[in-house]
Here is the input.
Amino acid sequence: MNRLSAEPAFAGVTVFQVDFDSSKDLLREWKVSQQSTLLAFRGKAEKMRSTSESDPEALRKVFQAAL
Here is the structure.
């Protein structure tokens, strides 16, 4: 994920990391029930969700959904 966020194509993407163990209120609000969940938002709208993904091309699609 760090490599993708450093790519110029994703300069407009903001990445927030949330601690799964200590941010239960936020996880409930976003309906996240598993660790390693990525949410892509465009504005206030969720555009894509991915859980436990490690394939670089699948992760790229999540980042692209936020643009």
